[in-house]
Amino acid sequence: MKKIIALLSVALLALTACTQKAEPVKILAHRGHASTGNQFSTDENTLDALRRAQECGGFTGCEFDVHLTADDQLVIHHDNKIAPGLTCQGNTLEEIRAHRLPYGGQIPTLQEWLEQAKKTPELLQLLEVKSHKGERELQLVDKCLEVIRQMDMVDMMYMLSFKPATLDYIIEKEPRMRVIYNSSSLHKSLPPEEVKARGYHAVSYNIQVILNHLEWVEQFRNYGIETFLWMVNSPYTHGLAGELGFDWATTDFYDYITAE
After folding, report:
1. FRET partner for 89 with CA separation of 20 to 30 A, picked from 13, 107, 123, 139?
2. What is the domain-level CATH number for residue 173?
3. What pLDDT band is residue 180 in, cutting at 50, 70 and 90?
4. Is the per-residue pLDDT at 21 higher than 70?
5. 42 in a structural domain
6. Is 64 exposed, middle or buried (0-12, 13-18, 19+ CB in 10 A)?
7. Quick one: how far is CA 103 from the chain centroid?
C-alpha cells in the first residue's frame, strides 16, 4: 500500500500541469451505507443500509447488486454464496429469505429496494448486474428492466457490469438506461475511445487501473463520460479522487473519508 501511495503521489505531481480543476467529487454509497467510522455497523445491501444512505445527506448515489434466484426472483446481495449450502442463484426466494445476515438483516428483493429508493429520487440508484451462467444473465437484465420500467424509475438508475456484452444488451433493450463499465483489470479495461464508441455513459475503474492510465481521466472527461474511482476508503484516496478529476468516489466508509 505504501508503494502504491508513493507512486500515485509522483504520478499526481506529473499530471497536475495538464489536469484542470474538477468539481467536488460526488460520493457513491457502496452497497448502501453500512458503516460507522471505518467499521461496518449493519448489513450491506439491505434496506437498513439503503435507508441510512438516504438519511445521511452526503451521498449522490447508492450502489447495490442483483442476482436471479433459482425460481426467477430478483434479490439484492453481493456474492452468489450467502452461507454454506445457500446461494442466490441456486436456491429459491423462500429459502433465501429465511436466512439472517450477520447483523440480523434480511436479503431484500429488487422490488422492495426500489420501493424504498423511490422515496428519495435525488439519490441515484446504481444496479450492478452480477455474473450468471449463459442466458441467465440476460434473463436477469430483462427482469430488472421490467421492474424498473413498471416503477417508472429509468431516470433514477444506472446499470453496471464487468462485461461489455451485458452492457451492450442493456442499451439494446433500454436505450434510455445509463450504463457503467466496471473494471479492475490492468489488461482488459477499455480505453476512452472504445468506451465512447460503445455508447457507455460512465466507467468505474479500480485505483490500480488508473495508476497505470492516469491520462485516461481527462480523456474520459473530454468525451463527456463520467468517471467513478473505487475503492475510496481513506481520506487520502478521497482527496486523490478530487485532485485527479474524478466525478465520483465509491466508498464503504463515508464517515471516515469525510471526517475533518
Report:
1. 123
2. 3.20.20.190
3. very high
4. no
5. yes
6. buried
7. 22
